[in-house]
Amino acid sequence: MKKYITVLGSTGSIGCSTLAVVKLNLDKYQIFALTANTQADKLFEQCVVFKPRYAVILDKTKAKFLQDKLLNHDINTQVLSDTTDLTVVVEDPEVDIVMSAIVGSCGLLPTYSAIKANKKVLLSNKESLIAGGQLMINALKNSSATLIPVDSEHNAIFQCLEGNKTSNAFNEVSKIILTASGGPFRTMSYEDIAKVTVESALQHPNWSMGKKVTIDSSTLMNKGLEVIEAYWLFGQDLNLIDVVVHPQSIIHSMVEYVDGSVLAQLGMPDMKTPIAHALAYPNRINSGSAKLDFTKIKSLTFESPDYKRFPCLQLAFDAIISGGTMPAILNAANEVAVAAFLNKEINFYAISDTIDTAMNYFSKTDFSSIDEIIDIDSVVRDFTLNTIRKSV
After folding, report:
1. Using the 8-state DSSP alphabet, how is residue 380 labeled?
2. Boundaries of domain holding 22
3. 219 lies in a domain?
4. What is the pTM of this model?
5. Which among 153, 164, 182, 154 has a CA at the least distance from the CA of 262?
6. Residue 339 belongs to what H/E stretch?
7. What is the CATH number of the domain that holds 20?
8. Total number of domains in the chain
């Protein structure tokens, strides 16, 4: 029997890779719903291929355009356009699997809803755990949902932990090691990084990603967010989570055990590999990724991250140490600052300066609901926008 899938953020990089994997495995999976923010033309093309029951696009004008275009092509996909419809297409009883690939905190509510609806959730939207980690974990514990990480690093850790199936496995871990490519500015001086352009920051040496995630990779904020995500996903003390720069991006992450053994997951830098693993878990399916050829690997090198040149990584550690709403504050300020950098309103190091300003302005508080997280996210965004406007 085929599994029905809702893909949140289907027009983004992860969404497109997910559909590429599904296309290779149509005997096993069927698309129930696809969602996008504004890319109506791309969503139309996906609907033509996969003919989902629903398509959600959060722009009413584009929704009407899309619905008319689909009807003209005799495609019976129903187009929805309200933010609440994101929840509708994950909670539907026919849905088995939800790929949470929306970028940013707008993925928080539908991901939470998918967990509460007992779905198999493939998590690419790291902001869900950054901003609402404890809520997500509590909902997971109180449901029959399954949460499988899709980020290459967390999926690698997941697989390495699966390789140690003792009843005491988590207590036998001595270190979780997240690998980082180092981004495009790994070898540059602080002074040269201060002058980088948006165009150069978008030239990632290994991965093909969306603009926001690529900028996060260049600042190492992406790795900082992954540290917070790993903290919640794997229930380990923060002191047991380490970051190592690995420029080749062949080892996607590692787990060190108390006996000194280290398990690593290796593969080509292609997101279709972890997507296929998460989609089929506990089984394996064809991902369409190129296979790793060890005879062509000249070297695997490692180095410590430089917190002075890449202060965003330290800010992320500070946020999770502080706890409460501070990771949500960090995330909201970062999203606004990255958008401003992409719009060429601020320079590269103003991203970390802006985040630091927000973290110092807002006090950490505890929270007990998704609504509280959404409220603090909104307030921090307004504050950060005003901070940027005053600085330019």
Report:
1. H
2. 3-149
3. no
4. 0.91
5. 164
6. helix 326-342
7. 3.40.50.720
8. 2
